[in-house]
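Sample 3 of the quickstart, ligand zinc ion:
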Amino acid sequence: MSVDLHIHTVASDSLWTPRALAEEVAKEGLTAFAVTDHDTDAALDETEEEAERLGLTFVRGIEFSCRLRNLEVHILGYFGDRSYGPLDRLLGRIERLLVEGATECATRMRAEGVSLPEFKFEGKQHPYVELSRSLVDSGEAKTLEDAFRIVIDPGSGFFVRPSRPVPAEVIEAIRGSGGVSSLAHPIRRGASMREIAEEISALQEMGLQAIEAYSPHHGDEGTRALLELARERKLGVTGGSDNHKGLLRGRTDKLADVPDAVYKQLLRLRDGLPA
Ligand SMILES: [Zn+2]
Ligand SMILES: [Zn+2]
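Result:
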């Protein structure tokens, strides 16, 4: 009995359509799955419909990019309800910032002679992904991955770094809407476990409820250390594949095999019960 609570779709940087993903989840026999696209909820309604059609348990999620001091950290928000004003306004602001960034990126490219129409955001995907797809459609990039090297790679010369919300605002908006927050892939290359524990403490003080202990970004040893830390700090744990359908180099195209007790715990955290 396993779950996968961290999966990306075509609404961000993955090749999973909602239908193909739901069919894969059914084939793998997962008890529950979550879509957690970067900074957008554009694929959630459609994935929810596909999940219902196949009788699957689906969790609505978003992976927020935040700035913690000089670090970019990713916070997963589960069950967030957009009828809660602060969450809706936060998502609206993030989208505006990303549209501005994509527009500026397109302007920089045109200034360098790339023949690209003006960027007009349609709202069906992450703005940077929409711009990347338009590069493929116009023949300026052969594949989406090539387009990402121009639009999303900080070293491309065209990349525009969007300003990011602070974690406290994101964590509060998620919880206020009845959702659960979890720090995605907490282990960073080059950071000691002590530094990571300090970051987690700072986020917990802001209301963080869980950490992603199960992730292919770190090995079994990392999982053990994070499970131990979660136990000490009375934090919940989440887990998932961070699956992009093999789109990003070195990333898995397999769904995760996370114990389904993690999903049950997520429900308890949503309901305000201890981890
Ligand atoms: Zn991430
Ligand atoms: Zn992710």
